[in-house]
Amino acid sequence: MKILYIGAFDDHSKSTNNSQYRALKKLNHQVIQHNYRIVEQRDGTSKCNNDLIDDIRKEKYDLVLISKGSMENSVVTQMCELTTVGLWYMDPLVPTSFSAEVQERCGIVHFVCCDKLNVLEECRKLNPNSYHVCEGFDGDVDKHFPGEKEIDVSFIGDIYGNRLSVLQGCGCPIAVIQGAYGVYHAMAVSKSKINLNVVTAQGASDRVYKIMAAGGFLLTDDWIGREEMFEDNKHLVIFRNPQDLAQKIRFYLEHPDLREQIARQGCEQVQEYNRDAWAHGIMQAFEQHEH
After folding, report:
1. Any idea which fold 151-271 has?
2. What's the half-sphere exposure (Cβ side, CA atoms, 13 Å) at 291?
3. DSSP string spanning 225-276?
4. Pick the CATH number of 2-136+274-290 from 3.40.50.11440, 3.40.50.800, 3.90.1150.10, 3.40.50.2000
């Protein structure tokens, strides 16, 4: 198959589109990157859109896959008149991401794949050809790095939403690590005895998969659909509120053997949610639409 993947691509493994592109190629598809935002900034919106439509018309792609997408929906409509167009949406169900524009785009494309189950529920109202595909982790970089665990408790990521109140509310010292992507994220996980996650909008980010894949012990609040993938106290540990979080931090710092056992089991369980599985899920959604 010939696939045009429209997304954000960089040289620093910051964008998940990089590893998704590689995973699609591993399925022996011809995959062409189109870095829409960079081309738009370079050539201007009008020329970028015209060139993109001309390229799709000329190259006769079997599938155009849009990662969320920042182009106008009128351009997406033109794409759909030329070939099969799928939308990959990974973000949570919040207005800043799942905007009116994105919702309209869901109804235009031929099929939608999304990472979070509560988003899937909304997408199916807009497009019956909507499917759950887990974003998962990048097996090339999300792996354990041996060495001393120098950090008792860490949170890797940006602080927004209710994260600050949860982390401050537990009253425990927590190392907040920002700007760690790719292999640096995995290295930070490997240095931490306890890795925290705070769910936003009832949907887990790829942080949970990346932590477990790197052999980290994951302490997180719950999210919709978690029980279908991971078992509490076996693959990870769920906290209910800041007070419960504080108690569980103290408990698992004092019980390293149990902590390491759960981390090993989580690492084993998460292996089915890697980028290769993501690519298979995208192609299954395409094939279901085609048939």
Report:
1. Rossmann fold (3.40.50)
2. 6
3. TGGGT--BTTTBEE--SHHHHHHHHHHHHH-HHHHHHHHHHHHHHHGGGBHH
4. 3.40.50.2000
Claim: this prediction has a pTM higher than 0.85: yes
Distance CA(188)–CA(180), nearest Å, equals 8
Domain with CATH 3.40.50.2000 in the chain: 2-136+274-290, 151-271
pLDDT by residue, tens only, the chain of 291 residues:
999 999 988 765 578 899 999 999 999 999 999 998 888 888 888 988 999 999 999 999 999 999 988 789 999 999 999 999 999 999 988 888 899 999 999 999 999 999 999 999 999 999 999 999 999 999 999 999 999 999 999 999 888 777 888 888 888 899 999 989 889 999 999 999 999 999 876 778 889 999 999 999 999 999 988 999 999 999 999 999 999 999 999 999 999 999 999 999 999 999 999 999 999 999 999 998 776
Q: Is 175 exposed, middle or buried (0-12, 13-18, 19+ CB in 10 A)?
A: middle
Contact between residue 134 and residue 273 where contact means Cβ atoms under 8 Å apart: yes
Geometric angle at alpha carbon 138, from 181 and 231, rounded to 5°? 105
Q: Where do runs of H (alpha helix) occur along the chain?
A: 17-26, 36-43, 45-59, 73-80, 100-108, 117-126, 163-169, 183-190, 207-213, 242-254, 256-270, 275-290
